[in-house]
Each structure stands twice: as C-alpha cells, then as structure tokens.
Amino acid sequence: MKISVIGCGYLGAVHASAMAELGHEVIGIDVDERKIGELAAGRPPFFEPGLPEILTSATASGRLRFSTDMADAAGAEVHFLAVGTPQTAGSHAADLRFVDAAFEGLIPHLADGALVVGKSTVPVGTATRLAERLAEVAPHASLAWNPEFLREGFAVKDTIEPDRLVYGVADDAAAATLDEIYRAALDAGTPRIVTDYPTAELVKVAANAFLATKISFINAMAEIAEATGADVTQLADAIGHDARIGRRFLNAGVGFGGGCLPKDIRAFSARAEELGRGDSVAFLKEVDSINLRRRQRVVDLAVEALGGSVNERRVAVLGVTFKPDSDDVRDSPALDVAVQLKGLGAEVVATDPEGLENARLRHPQLAYEASTTEALRDADLVVLVTEWSEYRGLDPAEVRDLVSNPTVIDGRNVLDPVSWRAAGWTYRGLGRP
Ligand code: UGA
C-alpha cells in the first residue's frame, strides 16, 4: 500500500521503516529538516537496535522516502499520525499542538477514500473530535485510531511482530484497510481487537498506567523492605512465580522514566479530571510520587555513603539514559540523580554507552566521560543508575583497583552483592539489606 507517516521521531521513523520493510511504499514526513536529512541518508537520528539495517535496506530499495513537505503525502492511501504528545509546560495535560498541526496540514492533501490513522498517544476523546472535523472538511476521507505499544530498544521487533493490534474504527472498511497493512502480522497469528475510538485510545493509556503501577508497586515494597531488612528482589521473584502476578516489570530500583510512562500517567490523570472522574485514577498520583521518591532515595543513599556530604567528592554515575539500549534521556531517573548530586556539590562524572550527546545538550553543567574506566578512575562513590549490560558485567575486583573508595550504589539491583562484597566493596542496593 501507499503510506505516509507524519512525524519521524522514535515512533514514526521506526514505523515508516518497518512498513517499508513489510513491502509497503512509504513516505516519512517531518518538519525537522536535519532529522529528515539524516533519515534520507539512511542514518537514524537516534539509537535503536536493528533500525539502521531496515532503514538502509528500505531507502536503498526505493520503497522508503523522506520529505519535509506535507504535499508529498498526497498520493498515499493511508496516513499515519505519529507526532509527539509531550506534557504541556505548567500542567499535567498532554500537549496536542503537534497532533492538531499535523492533522490540519494533512487535510488539503487527502485523496478520495484516504484513511488517516492516529498512532500518537492522545487523551481519550481526541479521535472523536478529529473524526468530526474530518466529516466537516474532508468527508471523502476517514479516521482510525491504532495505538502503538512499541518499547524503545525493541522498537523494530515490536512494530513488525506486535503482541496485539488494536483498531479504533467507525466502519468495517477502515478495519479492512488496516488488515491489509498488517497482513504479515495477522497471518502470523497476532491477536487483533477491533473497537471504537475511545476504547482504542484508552487501551494505550491504560496499558502504560498499568505498567507504571506495577513498577511503583514493587518500589513501594522496596521502601517497606528498607524499613524491615527484607530483600525486595527475592520478594519479586517469589510473588512473580504466581502466574497472575508475573515477574516482568517487577524490578525495583530508581524507577521509571522516558518519554512515555511519566507523561502518560499525568496526562491520564488530567483527562480523567476533565471528565469528572479524577477519583478513578487518583492512585496514579501516588504511582508518580513513589516513582519520584526513588530518585531522591538514591541521592540520599549517596550522601549517607559519603558520610553526610557529597560536596567535592568524586561520584561516577553509570548511565544517563532512562533505560539501556536507548539514547533517550527524556525524564531519565539516571540523569536526574546525576544532576541532583551535582547540585549538592559533588564532582559528578557521568558515563553512558549511547546517551552522552543527548545528556550534554540538556545538562551541559555535568562532566561526561565516554570511557567507563576513566569515569570510574579515582571515584569516591560509584552509582549505577542505568542497567547497560556493560555495567552489569563489570568485574568488581578489576574495578576495585580503579576507584579511590570502593562503595557502590546499585540503583537497578543488577549487581551480585555477594561477589561485590567479596571483592572488598561496600554494596548498597535499593530495597535490599
Ligand atoms: C513504554 C511501554 O513499555 C511501551 O509498551 C509503550 O509503547 C511505550 O512506553 C510508549 O508509550 O511509547 P518505553 O518507554 O520504551 O515503553 O520503556 P519501558 O521498557 O516500558 O520502561 C520504562 C521505564 O520503566 C524505564 O525507565 C525502565 O527502566 C523502568 N522499569 C521497567 C523499571 O524501573 N522496572 C521494571 O521492572 C521495568
């Protein structure tokens, strides 16, 4: 099929490349000229495993092109809206300016029978509003909402082999068009839920709210574990064996961040309040508070580990991205901890395999070091806050010789306390004795 993807960020660039990989003819559109230039040259403007390969093969095949001109979307039968919906400054609500601008910009270019497919995460009610607008100004086109559940770091796989497809549609024709696009996944047995607009929009925010709640639940248990001498990692293993609970997303630590979970739970609360149902998701405020407290907990542990003050002490911060296998530092707990320690006077040296460029743009006041060895050299304290495999695999005996004081705070509970202690380290985990 002929497809356009409006918005070429983490979501759109992967979606456009994956659709071309599946054999569709795709044009990716974005207002950011630099981003479009990079993508057209086959270079992803962000780190995502597997993306360079499909981007290069799709651009070389001629099935994938990029443009900054919305008019180039004109020939497509299906237009995916994949622009961002960040948190509004000074409020918890989602900022829909990019969605509205992309939608309005697209309207003059919609061919007869074209289908506009929303992928962006939006407050429930948005699709109905856009469908009404379409009925007024472009009745020859229609709208579907098809939320995306990809995880950064696994985005290509999640797009090509999703664990479910959700279509919010107003008629069977839209569902049939989406079936044609996702034929390969459907043939492989991917479950598909065909529903209305509000359900499709809510599925997305409910899924992220549930995941955030699961993480904050285990982090709340970590707080209790800290007060009682229990070990939250063993607790998670034990409750995780109950198939109704499950072990995934029960890793206690410095908490969740990124461009999705934090802003999505806040936007959900804001929307629920607008609907007069704020009480129904009041617990999400608690989920957010528990999450933010974990960052403070790591900072407090650092102060405690250095005898009451981090001032002028050298702290090696391992990781700046919000999770491994990503260069994304949006709302990153790791970067937040580094910034807070710096604010307390510490000589912070932050390192990360992929995130340093983005971190430097946001927080030029921090010292960054690409080499893990150099970041660790002469450190008075080591704080692991993003569980890159390189850090998980550090040899405690080797690292012991680099630092000036062998104390480590394992903000992701991924190091083995026994072997680190045996190598002479003072080890502190989160929610572990
Ligand atoms: C999340 C969802 O997992 C995706 O399904 C969704 O499509 C996406 O948001 C989105 O809305 O676009 P992502 O932001 O890539 O994906 O990251 P996750 O893998 O969900 O991790 C989020 C945060 O939770 C990370 O900071 C991670 O370190 C943290 N986390 C995760 C924990 O602290 N503990 C865990 O057990 C799991």
UniProtKB/TrEMBL annotation:
Q: Which reaction does it catalyse?
A: UDP-alpha-D-glucose + 2 NAD(+) + H2O = UDP-alpha-D-glucuronate + 2 NADH + 3 H(+)
Question: Which one Pfam family would you cite for this protein?
Answer: UDPG_MGDP_dh
Q: Which UniProt keywords apply?
A: NAD, Oxidoreductase
Q: Catalytic positions?
A: C260 (nucleophile)
This enzyme's EC code(s): 1.1.1.22
Where on this chain does NAD(+) bind?
A: D30, K35, T85, T121, E152, K263, R330
Checking SUPFAM superfamilies in the record gives:
6-phosphogluconate dehydrogenase C-terminal domain-like (SSF48179), NAD(P)-binding Rossmann-fold domains (SSF51735), UDP-glucose/GDP-mannose dehydrogenase C-terminal domain (SSF52413)
| Entry superkingdom | Bacteria
Q: Where is the UDP-glucose/GDP-mannose dehydrogenase C-terminal domain?
A: 316-417
Name the residues that bind substrate: F149, L150, R151, E152, K204, F249, L250, N251, A252, G253, G257, K323
Q: Which GO terms describe its biological process?
A: polysaccharide biosynthetic process; UDP-glucuronate biosynthetic process
Please state the pathway this protein functions in, per its UniProt record.
Answer: Nucleotide-sugar biosynthesis; UDP-alpha-D-glucuronate biosynthesis; UDP-alpha-D-glucuronate from UDP-alpha-D-glucose: step 1/1
Class in the EC hierarchy, top level:
oxidoreductase
As one GO molecular function, the record gives: UDP-glucose 6-dehydrogenase activity
The role this protein plays is:
Catalyzes the conversion of UDP-glucose into UDP-glucuronate, one of the precursors of teichuronic acid.
What family does the entry list?
Belongs to the UDP-glucose/GDP-mannose dehydrogenase family.
Which protein is depicted?
Answer: UDP-glucose 6-dehydrogenase
Please give the organism: Agromyces binzhouensis
Q: What is the lineage of its organism?
A: Bacteria, Bacillati, Actinomycetota, Actinomycetes, Micrococcales
